[in-house]
Specification:
Length: 332
Protein backbone atom coordinates (compact mmCIF):
# COMPACT_ATOMS: atom_id res chain seq x y z
CA UNK A 1 0.00 0.00 0.00
CA UNK A 2 1.20 3.51 -0.81
CA UNK A 3 0.00 6.11 1.66
CA UNK A 4 0.12 9.86 1.14
CA UNK A 5 -0.03 11.37 4.61
CA UNK A 6 -1.38 14.85 5.23
CA UNK A 7 1.40 17.37 5.79
CA UNK A 8 -0.13 17.91 9.24
CA UNK A 9 0.48 14.24 10.20
CA UNK A 10 2.94 14.17 13.08
CA UNK A 11 6.38 12.56 12.62
CA UNK A 12 5.57 10.31 15.64
CA UNK A 13 2.42 8.95 14.01
CA UNK A 14 4.24 8.29 10.72
CA UNK A 15 7.18 6.73 12.54
CA UNK A 16 4.98 4.42 14.66
CA UNK A 17 2.93 3.37 11.65
CA UNK A 18 6.06 2.67 9.57
CA UNK A 19 7.58 0.62 12.37
CA UNK A 20 4.44 -1.46 12.84
CA UNK A 21 3.98 -2.19 9.13
CA UNK A 22 7.63 -2.24 7.98
CA UNK A 23 6.83 0.79 5.88
CA UNK A 24 9.41 2.90 4.10
CA UNK A 25 9.05 6.63 4.60
CA UNK A 26 10.21 9.32 2.17
CA UNK A 27 9.20 12.84 1.18
CA UNK A 28 8.12 13.85 -2.30
CA UNK A 29 7.78 17.63 -2.72
CA UNK A 30 7.23 17.91 1.04
CA UNK A 31 4.52 15.28 0.95
CA UNK A 32 5.16 12.48 3.48
CA UNK A 33 4.75 9.07 1.83
CA UNK A 34 4.95 5.61 3.37
CA UNK A 35 5.05 2.43 1.30
CA UNK A 36 4.24 -0.83 3.06
CA UNK A 37 4.05 -4.37 1.71
CA UNK A 38 1.39 -4.75 -0.98
CA UNK A 39 -0.18 -7.39 1.29
CA UNK A 40 -1.71 -4.58 3.34
CA UNK A 41 -5.10 -4.12 1.65
CA UNK A 42 -7.16 -2.15 4.22
CA UNK A 43 -6.14 1.24 5.57
CA UNK A 44 -5.71 0.90 9.36
CA UNK A 45 -8.39 2.97 11.07
CA UNK A 46 -5.95 4.62 13.51
CA UNK A 47 -4.31 6.63 10.70
CA UNK A 48 -7.45 7.34 8.65
CA UNK A 49 -7.69 10.99 9.71
CA UNK A 50 -4.05 11.68 8.90
CA UNK A 51 -4.15 10.39 5.33
CA UNK A 52 -4.87 12.34 2.15
CA UNK A 53 -4.89 9.45 -0.29
CA UNK A 54 -3.87 5.81 -0.39
CA UNK A 55 -3.35 3.17 -3.08
CA UNK A 56 -3.98 -0.54 -2.64
CA UNK A 57 -1.49 -2.40 -4.84
CA UNK A 58 -1.58 -5.95 -6.23
CA UNK A 59 2.15 -6.67 -6.00
CA UNK A 60 5.36 -5.11 -4.71
CA UNK A 61 5.73 -3.31 -8.03
CA UNK A 62 4.28 -0.23 -6.37
CA UNK A 63 5.87 3.19 -6.95
CA UNK A 64 6.90 2.01 -10.43
CA UNK A 65 3.39 0.83 -11.26
CA UNK A 66 0.99 2.39 -13.74
CA UNK A 67 -1.73 1.66 -11.14
CA UNK A 68 -0.07 4.26 -8.91
CA UNK A 69 1.00 6.84 -11.45
CA UNK A 70 -0.45 6.40 -14.88
CA UNK A 71 1.72 8.80 -16.87
CA UNK A 72 5.34 7.99 -17.58
CA UNK A 73 7.85 9.62 -15.24
CA UNK A 74 9.95 12.32 -16.81
CA UNK A 75 13.73 12.39 -16.50
CA UNK A 76 15.01 15.88 -17.15
CA UNK A 77 18.62 15.99 -18.25
CA UNK A 78 20.52 19.18 -18.92
CA UNK A 79 19.96 19.07 -22.68
CA UNK A 80 17.09 16.61 -23.20
CA UNK A 81 14.15 14.90 -21.54
CA UNK A 82 13.37 11.20 -21.47
CA UNK A 83 9.86 9.97 -20.71
CA UNK A 84 7.12 12.24 -19.41
CA UNK A 85 5.21 13.92 -22.21
CA UNK A 86 8.23 13.92 -24.51
CA UNK A 87 8.28 11.57 -27.46
CA UNK A 88 12.03 11.32 -27.28
CA UNK A 89 14.14 8.25 -27.89
CA UNK A 90 17.55 9.13 -26.52
CA UNK A 91 20.50 7.45 -28.19
CA UNK A 92 23.32 6.91 -25.73
CA UNK A 93 26.58 5.99 -27.43
CA UNK A 94 30.17 5.45 -26.44
CA UNK A 95 32.77 2.79 -25.80
CA UNK A 96 32.34 -0.06 -23.37
CA UNK A 97 35.33 1.24 -21.39
CA UNK A 98 37.15 4.52 -21.42
CA UNK A 99 40.70 3.44 -22.33
CA UNK A 100 42.60 6.67 -22.97
CA UNK A 101 42.15 10.39 -23.48
CA UNK A 102 42.60 10.05 -27.25
CA UNK A 103 40.13 7.21 -27.54
CA UNK A 104 37.33 9.01 -25.68
CA UNK A 105 37.97 12.27 -27.54
CA UNK A 106 37.69 10.62 -30.94
CA UNK A 107 34.38 9.03 -29.96
CA UNK A 108 33.07 12.22 -28.34
CA UNK A 109 33.89 14.34 -31.42
CA UNK A 110 31.99 11.93 -33.65
CA UNK A 111 28.93 11.66 -31.40
CA UNK A 112 28.81 15.43 -31.02
CA UNK A 113 28.73 15.88 -34.81
CA UNK A 114 25.87 13.38 -35.02
CA UNK A 115 23.98 15.41 -32.38
CA UNK A 116 23.95 12.92 -29.50
CA UNK A 117 23.28 14.35 -26.06
CA UNK A 118 24.63 11.57 -23.85
CA UNK A 119 27.96 9.76 -23.82
CA UNK A 120 28.57 6.43 -22.10
CA UNK A 121 31.88 4.91 -21.03
CA UNK A 122 32.67 2.53 -18.19
CA UNK A 123 35.42 3.28 -15.67
CA UNK A 124 34.76 0.42 -13.23
CA UNK A 125 34.23 -2.68 -15.36
CA UNK A 126 32.42 -5.73 -13.96
CA UNK A 127 34.54 -8.26 -15.85
CA UNK A 128 33.88 -11.98 -15.77
CA UNK A 129 37.61 -12.70 -15.41
CA UNK A 130 39.87 -10.99 -12.86
CA UNK A 131 42.78 -11.26 -15.33
CA UNK A 132 41.34 -8.81 -17.85
CA UNK A 133 41.23 -4.99 -18.02
CA UNK A 134 39.24 -3.73 -15.02
CA UNK A 135 38.83 -0.09 -16.08
CA UNK A 136 40.62 3.20 -15.43
CA UNK A 137 38.71 3.92 -12.21
CA UNK A 138 38.69 7.49 -10.93
CA UNK A 139 41.20 8.61 -13.57
CA UNK A 140 38.57 7.67 -16.16
CA UNK A 141 35.85 9.59 -14.29
CA UNK A 142 38.03 12.70 -14.34
CA UNK A 143 38.49 12.41 -18.11
CA UNK A 144 34.72 12.06 -18.54
CA UNK A 145 34.17 15.26 -16.58
CA UNK A 146 36.53 17.08 -18.98
CA UNK A 147 34.63 15.64 -21.95
CA UNK A 148 31.34 16.78 -20.41
CA UNK A 149 32.75 20.30 -20.17
CA UNK A 150 34.26 20.40 -23.66
CA UNK A 151 31.42 18.68 -25.52
CA UNK A 152 28.32 19.44 -23.42
CA UNK A 153 27.25 15.82 -23.04
CA UNK A 154 25.43 14.14 -20.20
CA UNK A 155 27.85 11.54 -18.95
CA UNK A 156 26.69 8.06 -18.00
CA UNK A 157 29.04 5.59 -16.35
CA UNK A 158 28.56 2.44 -14.37
CA UNK A 159 28.77 1.30 -10.77
CA UNK A 160 29.86 -2.30 -10.33
CA UNK A 161 30.14 -2.47 -6.55
CA UNK A 162 29.68 -0.39 -3.45
CA UNK A 163 33.39 0.57 -3.10
CA UNK A 164 33.03 3.36 -5.69
CA UNK A 165 29.31 4.13 -5.70
CA UNK A 166 29.87 7.52 -4.00
CA UNK A 167 32.50 8.48 -6.57
CA UNK A 168 30.26 7.64 -9.51
CA UNK A 169 27.33 9.50 -7.93
CA UNK A 170 29.61 12.52 -7.52
CA UNK A 171 30.98 12.55 -11.09
CA UNK A 172 28.25 11.19 -13.37
CA UNK A 173 25.11 12.86 -14.72
CA UNK A 174 23.39 9.47 -15.00
CA UNK A 175 24.47 6.57 -12.81
CA UNK A 176 24.40 3.20 -14.56
CA UNK A 177 23.91 0.20 -12.30
CA UNK A 178 25.43 -2.77 -14.11
CA UNK A 179 23.48 -5.98 -14.71
CA UNK A 180 25.61 -7.91 -12.22
CA UNK A 181 25.04 -5.20 -9.59
CA UNK A 182 21.25 -5.08 -9.96
CA UNK A 183 20.71 -6.95 -6.71
CA UNK A 184 23.25 -4.98 -4.66
CA UNK A 185 21.10 -3.29 -2.08
CA UNK A 186 23.82 -0.97 -0.80
CA UNK A 187 24.17 0.43 -4.33
CA UNK A 188 20.41 0.64 -4.80
CA UNK A 189 19.91 2.42 -1.48
CA UNK A 190 22.73 4.90 -2.15
CA UNK A 191 21.19 5.65 -5.54
CA UNK A 192 17.85 6.16 -3.77
CA UNK A 193 19.43 8.81 -1.58
CA UNK A 194 20.56 11.02 -4.48
CA UNK A 195 18.31 12.68 -7.02
CA UNK A 196 20.57 12.05 -10.00
CA UNK A 197 19.04 9.89 -12.73
CA UNK A 198 19.83 6.19 -12.45
CA UNK A 199 19.83 3.74 -15.36
CA UNK A 200 19.21 0.34 -13.81
CA UNK A 201 20.22 -2.61 -15.96
CA UNK A 202 18.30 -5.85 -15.69
CA UNK A 203 20.28 -8.69 -14.17
CA UNK A 204 20.60 -11.35 -16.87
CA UNK A 205 19.10 -13.98 -14.56
CA UNK A 206 16.35 -11.88 -13.09
CA UNK A 207 12.62 -11.91 -13.72
CA UNK A 208 10.77 -8.75 -14.63
CA UNK A 209 9.24 -8.70 -11.14
CA UNK A 210 12.70 -8.86 -9.53
CA UNK A 211 14.00 -6.20 -11.92
CA UNK A 212 11.25 -3.72 -11.11
CA UNK A 213 11.46 -4.50 -7.40
CA UNK A 214 15.14 -3.51 -7.57
CA UNK A 215 13.94 -0.18 -9.01
CA UNK A 216 11.55 0.09 -6.04
CA UNK A 217 14.58 0.25 -3.71
CA UNK A 218 15.69 3.43 -5.50
CA UNK A 219 12.22 4.96 -5.82
CA UNK A 220 11.37 4.33 -2.17
CA UNK A 221 14.58 6.10 -1.19
CA UNK A 222 12.95 9.20 -2.66
CA UNK A 223 14.73 9.26 -6.03
CA UNK A 224 12.08 9.48 -8.74
CA UNK A 225 14.57 9.47 -11.62
CA UNK A 226 14.86 5.82 -12.52
CA UNK A 227 15.29 4.46 -16.05
CA UNK A 228 15.00 0.72 -16.72
CA UNK A 229 17.39 -0.92 -19.19
CA UNK A 230 16.78 -4.28 -20.87
CA UNK A 231 20.18 -5.68 -21.90
CA UNK A 232 19.42 -9.33 -22.61
CA UNK A 233 18.80 -12.31 -20.37
CA UNK A 234 20.40 -15.72 -20.25
CA UNK A 235 18.42 -18.45 -21.99
CA UNK A 236 19.30 -21.86 -23.45
CA UNK A 237 20.47 -20.13 -26.65
CA UNK A 238 24.22 -19.93 -27.09
CA UNK A 239 24.61 -18.54 -30.62
CA UNK A 240 24.04 -15.05 -29.28
CA UNK A 241 25.58 -13.69 -26.08
CA UNK A 242 22.19 -13.17 -24.36
CA UNK A 243 18.57 -13.04 -25.53
CA UNK A 244 17.04 -9.58 -25.90
CA UNK A 245 13.71 -9.78 -24.10
CA UNK A 246 11.43 -7.57 -26.17
CA UNK A 247 8.40 -9.22 -24.52
CA UNK A 248 9.86 -7.87 -21.29
CA UNK A 249 10.15 -4.43 -22.84
CA UNK A 250 6.48 -4.33 -23.79
CA UNK A 251 5.57 -5.62 -20.31
CA UNK A 252 7.54 -2.75 -18.75
CA UNK A 253 5.89 -0.24 -21.09
CA UNK A 254 2.44 -1.56 -20.26
CA UNK A 255 2.76 -1.97 -16.50
CA UNK A 256 5.35 0.51 -15.24
CA UNK A 257 5.62 4.27 -15.25
CA UNK A 258 9.39 4.26 -15.80
CA UNK A 259 11.19 5.13 -19.05
CA UNK A 260 12.68 2.08 -20.77
CA UNK A 261 16.01 1.92 -22.60
CA UNK A 262 17.18 -1.03 -24.72
CA UNK A 263 20.82 -2.08 -24.94
CA UNK A 264 21.18 -4.32 -28.01
CA UNK A 265 25.00 -4.36 -27.77
CA UNK A 266 25.26 -6.51 -24.66
CA UNK A 267 22.22 -8.60 -25.64
CA UNK A 268 23.49 -9.76 -29.01
CA UNK A 269 27.20 -9.59 -28.26
CA UNK A 270 28.15 -9.24 -31.94
CA UNK A 271 28.23 -6.12 -34.04
CA UNK A 272 26.42 -7.56 -37.09
CA UNK A 273 22.81 -7.21 -35.88
CA UNK A 274 22.97 -4.17 -33.63
CA UNK A 275 21.34 -1.91 -36.25
CA UNK A 276 18.45 -4.34 -36.76
CA UNK A 277 17.79 -4.61 -33.01
CA UNK A 278 18.10 -0.84 -32.57
CA UNK A 279 15.50 -0.21 -35.29
CA UNK A 280 13.19 -2.87 -33.84
CA UNK A 281 13.46 -1.22 -30.44
CA UNK A 282 12.71 2.23 -31.85
CA UNK A 283 9.68 0.72 -33.60
CA UNK A 284 8.50 -0.49 -30.19
CA UNK A 285 8.58 3.09 -28.97
CA UNK A 286 11.34 2.78 -26.38
CA UNK A 287 12.63 5.85 -24.58
CA UNK A 288 16.26 5.22 -25.33
CA UNK A 289 18.97 3.04 -26.80
CA UNK A 290 22.39 2.31 -25.35
CA UNK A 291 24.89 1.28 -28.01
CA UNK A 292 28.61 0.68 -27.74
CA UNK A 293 30.97 2.24 -30.24
CA UNK A 294 34.75 2.39 -30.37
CA UNK A 295 37.22 3.96 -32.83
CA UNK A 296 38.86 0.59 -33.38
CA UNK A 297 36.69 -2.21 -31.91
CA UNK A 298 39.21 -4.96 -32.75
CA UNK A 299 41.60 -3.49 -30.18
CA UNK A 300 38.96 -2.68 -27.53
CA UNK A 301 39.95 -3.72 -24.02
CA UNK A 302 36.42 -4.96 -23.25
CA UNK A 303 33.45 -6.15 -25.33
CA UNK A 304 35.44 -6.02 -28.58
CA UNK A 305 33.08 -8.24 -30.60
CA UNK A 306 29.99 -6.11 -30.11
CA UNK A 307 31.20 -2.52 -30.44
CA UNK A 308 30.41 -0.71 -33.69
CA UNK A 309 33.16 1.29 -35.32
CA UNK A 310 32.34 4.96 -35.78
CA UNK A 311 31.19 4.58 -39.39
CA UNK A 312 28.93 1.67 -38.45
CA UNK A 313 27.55 3.71 -35.58
CA UNK A 314 26.82 6.62 -37.91
CA UNK A 315 24.91 4.51 -40.42
CA UNK A 316 22.99 2.74 -37.66
CA UNK A 317 22.15 6.14 -36.13
CA UNK A 318 21.06 7.65 -39.46
CA UNK A 319 18.73 4.71 -40.09
CA UNK A 320 16.72 5.34 -36.91
CA UNK A 321 14.99 8.59 -37.87
CA UNK A 322 12.63 7.06 -40.45
CA UNK A 323 11.49 4.37 -38.01
CA UNK A 324 11.10 6.94 -35.25
CA UNK A 325 8.96 9.16 -37.48
CA UNK A 326 6.74 6.20 -38.39
CA UNK A 327 5.90 5.61 -34.71
CA UNK A 328 5.73 9.25 -33.61
CA UNK A 329 9.07 9.29 -31.82
CA UNK A 330 11.86 11.75 -31.98
CA UNK A 331 15.54 10.70 -31.91
CA UNK A 332 17.68 12.83 -29.59
C1 LIG B 1 28.33 -2.21 -20.00
O1 LIG B 1 27.37 -1.43 -20.16
O2 LIG B 1 29.45 -2.05 -20.53
C2 LIG B 1 28.11 -3.44 -19.20
C3 LIG B 1 29.11 -4.07 -18.60
O3 LIG B 1 26.84 -3.84 -19.20
P1 LIG B 1 26.06 -4.97 -18.35
O4 LIG B 1 26.11 -4.51 -16.93
O5 LIG B 1 24.69 -4.93 -18.95
O6 LIG B 1 26.77 -6.27 -18.59
MN1 LIG C 1 30.26 -3.34 -22.38
Amino acid sequence: MIIHFKSSATPELIHDFSLKHQGIFFQENDRPIVVTSSKLKVLPSDIENSVDEYFVMDSDIQLASKNYQNGKRSIDLKNATIGGKSNNTMVIGGPCSIESWDQINIVADKLKVLGLKTLRAGCFKPRTSPYTFQGLGEEGLKMLVKIRESHGFNIITEVKDSTHVDLVIEYADIIQIGAKAMYDQSILRKCGATNKPVLLKRGFGSTLQEFVQAAEFILSGGNENVILCERGIRTFESQTRFTLDLCGVVFLKEHTNLPVVVDPSHALGYRYGIGDLARASVALGVDGLLIETHPNPETAKSDAAQQLNLQEFESMFNSLAAVATAVGKNIV
